[in-house]
């Protein structure tokens, strides 16, 4: 009798702790398939805590205690997704985005019949999209973007009746977009950018009457834009850029109600339809990198949202547009940015805030350029401008960026330039002569100074060491003489210093090593001598060091092995002696090492 009582008590005590059910075991199998779990899933422990409903990322139904939600996003998990996932039969939501999960998506996922939300984005998943996903009849949200998935888009995805969001962007998917997909009346978001999809834009794309986001950017689609494109009246964002679409932009496109229209990077021909100027909802328009011809329609000036403070006529560059820039564009009070670069032969009537780089503009820089009292960005880089920099250039007090590089501008840099308040001054690639004006050292707002590839002579002004905000200083490709001023060591923000291909002499100032932010240092092709400053070991941010083709001598300091981020070291063409320091072998990031032609 006592034995029976003992057994009864034993079973009663055992009943206090419920054994793990199938879902608990499934979660443990999933944990076993992950790597890098570290402390992320510390409470997933069936020995010390069998209450899996309390585990991190797990949410259970209050009544059935079945797992209904699993959120393990952004935990840096590696490994694979276990087929045991299919044992979570009541699962309604799963979010594994932002990890490093590899392997294939398990077919067993199709057993989660209640699943409505699935996000496996931004992992390393590969292989095909399993057909079993089409069994998830309750699925509304499917996000598999930013993986390495291959194969076609399964046509069976069209059998998911409630699917509202389908994002397969940035994978390696091939084949055509399933035509039946266009007949999903509930689909609202279709993201397919950055794959290798082929085929054409089907006229059926306008059957997606609930769709607001259509993005096939960066695929291999061919053919033309469907003539009935204007029937896609629900679309708010239409991006078919960077494909191989040909033909003209159909007139019907003017009936769209989109806020964003991106057609850039195709092979579209013909003129810009004037009807685009009637698309009053348009906030972003990008027709760049095509083969469009003819004038810019003045009616584009009617696009009130594009020219609002938040809108953008993103660009029309890289076409073959001709004629003037319409006054309707240059007179818009809210216009902040207008890119017409790399067009064929535009002429400027009344400039607004414009970028005109890479055209074939001729003539000179007019003294009237400083009449643009509201202008902050002036870019005429890469044209055929001649003449000199206007003597009144310092009157352009509103300018923040001034780029006149890669033209044929001659003469000296005017003293008046020192009155500018610019953050970027780019004069490189011209035929400027004379000395660098010392007054440039007083331009306290200057962050980028590029005077490279000119014919400047004389010494580097020591006063440039006062440019406390300067991060990039490019003086290479001139005829500068004298030593490197020690004052440059005061530039605490200096990120890149390029003095290559001049006639500089003397040693590298030791206090250059005080430029703690220095990432690139290039003095190639001068007449510098002496030894490498030992203080360079303290330049922890330095990745590129080029001392080649000078007259440096002595031993290569072993301290160079302490520049931990160095990936390029060029000491060739000098007179260094002795062995190569073994410490250079400790540079884990070093990719390029040149020490040839030393003694």
Automatic annotation (TrEMBL):
<keyword id="KW-0472">Membrane</keyword>
<dbReference type="InterPro" id="IPR013210">
    <property type="entry name" value="LRR_N_plant-typ"/>
</dbReference>
<keyword id="KW-0732">Signal</keyword>
<protein>
    <recommendedName>
        <fullName>Leucine-rich repeat-containing N-terminal plant-type domain-containing protein</fullName>
    </recommendedName>
</protein>
<keyword id="KW-0677">Repeat</keyword>
<keyword id="KW-0433">Leucine-rich repeat</keyword>
<dbReference type="Pfam" id="PF08263">
    <property type="entry name" value="LRRNT_2"/>
</dbReference>
<comment type="similarity">
    <text>Belongs to the RLP family.</text>
</comment>
<feature type="signal peptide">
    <location>
        <begin position="1"/>
        <end position="19"/>
    </location>
</feature>
<keyword id="KW-0812">Transmembrane</keyword>
<keyword id="KW-1133">Transmembrane helix</keyword>
<keyword id="KW-0325">Glycoprotein</keyword>
<dbReference type="InterPro" id="IPR003591">
    <property type="entry name" value="Leu-rich_rpt_typical-subtyp"/>
</dbReference>
<dbReference type="Pfam" id="PF00560">
    <property type="entry name" value="LRR_1"/>
</dbReference>
<dbReference type="InterPro" id="IPR052595">
    <property type="entry name" value="LRRC69/RLP"/>
</dbReference>
<dbReference type="InterPro" id="IPR032675">
    <property type="entry name" value="LRR_dom_sf"/>
</dbReference>
<feature type="domain" description="Leucine-rich repeat-containing N-terminal plant-type">
    <location>
        <begin position="21"/>
        <end position="61"/>
    </location>
</feature>
<dbReference type="GO" id="GO:0016020">
    <property type="term" value="C:membrane"/>
</dbReference>
<dbReference type="InterPro" id="IPR001611">
    <property type="entry name" value="Leu-rich_rpt"/>
</dbReference>
